[in-house]
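Board notes (copied after class):
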Amino acid sequence: MQPQIDLHTVEREPGTDARILSWNILSEELTPDAPAIDRRIDGICEVILQYLPDAAGIQEISETAYALFADRIGEIYSFVNPKTKEGNYSFTGIAYNQKKYRLLESDIQNYSQGNRRIRIATWIYLEEQATGRRFVLLSTHWDRHACNRPMQAEYMGNLVLSLERRFGVPVICTGDFNARENSGAFRIFMDISHHGEAKYLCAHPVNNCFTGHEVGSFAPQYEGEESIDHITVTSGVSVLHYETVINDETVRLSDHFPLYTDLKFGAASAPMMEE
């Protein structure tokens, strides 16, 4: 059943080329005491449709959640690479608006450390049907164990560089990095990729704060603006808006608040000329 909601609730900043969302939705399979996903899915889908991103990196998607997403918002959003190369459902997902975009290529790659259903970098290469504008979106979920994150950061940084060289378009990264901006692992990734953090590239970010919280409680686990959920962008991409969505709805849906950004790519997203 499709949620009944105004799809144009949240307007985009003028000049926006793409809106990107990132959200760890809290899997009931990974956290047994989490509220059942079938009691939260309608609210999650309503938030997605309120902000109507062009593409979204979504972490902790269970097998049940994939089916519920397909039923609720499958007419608009296609979820790419729901299964790993071993044939298991991937908890680290990615979706795009199939009414606006054409999927050109995608892949799912496991890190050498950690759970192979969770510790994943999955990416899609998209082309906007109306304009030919192209970009790559990557979604990830780094390890909870700090000893594994530097290796995952190095792998992902080099993956971003290879995607930028190969396609010649902006690469946008989303995910639960389990690492704050001042951590060694996050600095490794940023130093290799030369990416910028969207919230620090935005002139006036909204709710620049830690995104983790207890389900149903606005109290963050930690104080301060640094977080473990991130959206990073290729150098030269303009960030027109950045926001952590904190309200009475999102606080009950997960233990992470969703974040989104409105981006302007410029000439860098123009389709590559065929040789």
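Comment from the instructor: The first strand starts at residue 18 and ends at 24. The radius of gyration is 17 Å.
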